[in-house]
Amino acid sequence: MLKIKGLYLPMLANRIVTGDVFFLNSSATNTNDDPGNGKDPTKPFATLDYAQSKATSANDDLLVIGAGHTETVTGAGGITFDVDGLSMVGQGRYDSRPTFLMDGSAITGLVTAANTGIENVKFVAGHSDIAVGFLVTGKGFKMESCHFGGNTTNENFVNCVTGSAADNDCDGLELIGNVMDYGADIGPINPINLLKNSKDVRIMGNKIIADLRTSPYAAIYSVNTEVHTNIEIGYNMIHNVHNANSVVGISAGSTGSTGWMHHNIVYALDTNGNTPFVSAATGIVMWDNKFAAAANVSAFQMPTLGTYAA
């Protein structure tokens, strides 16, 4: 509890909470989707959709998802984040984190509300070539410390996160410290995809492991006709075992884009004509990005260092 000038505010998950706090955990003994549940961690809600229905839009509410929670999502939009300002935080570490089995062939997750966020949960593909894990059409969405993976062989996401359906739908998108692990899957793969104009997008500190052998090849990709202003792509690590001439790492920004691409590391088996970092935008500044094209050697800087004539 934090006291500010006589006002007592609860602190959960290292944050001050000014709205209501709800609890979700299907593994708890007294779990139930009932109006009498959800306000006490010993009597949590059972499903995400019901828990969200009890939150208030634009109230800065917090949903705590307990360790061991499991839920199966079926069909398009099986998960929809549709409550403005709701933050969702998973409890637990590694295998005990809340787990959502995404079992559908189309878009299994939708972000339609503004200023929502989710942290520390696992999204597991339970179907072959799920088109999109999450389509983001709400501004200010933040996904942090989440894990995408497959349930078994040949069950995978084609795309983990896509923004968006229309220009500036996903302004303020933040993808921070997530893991997108495709294992040995070699189907069509495109982990992070920016399809429309955006501003203030941050893609930072993510790890992507995949065999990106189908177009557009890049793990973090933007259509080259779309404009991204104040975009930052930094400290991402990409392990791509693709071995042909292509953009094997990050491709972002048309000529009108502005922002920064820095401190990213790409490993790929493309040793001829490799282009790990590409931007058509003179306004996107690149520095300290590194590329390794073989095992057991240190990565080297790419693009090459520029020169300046005084």
From TrEMBL:
Organism this protein belongs to: marine sediment metagenome
InterPro entries: Pectin_lyase_fold/virulence (IPR011050)
Name assigned to this protein: Right handed beta helix domain-containing protein
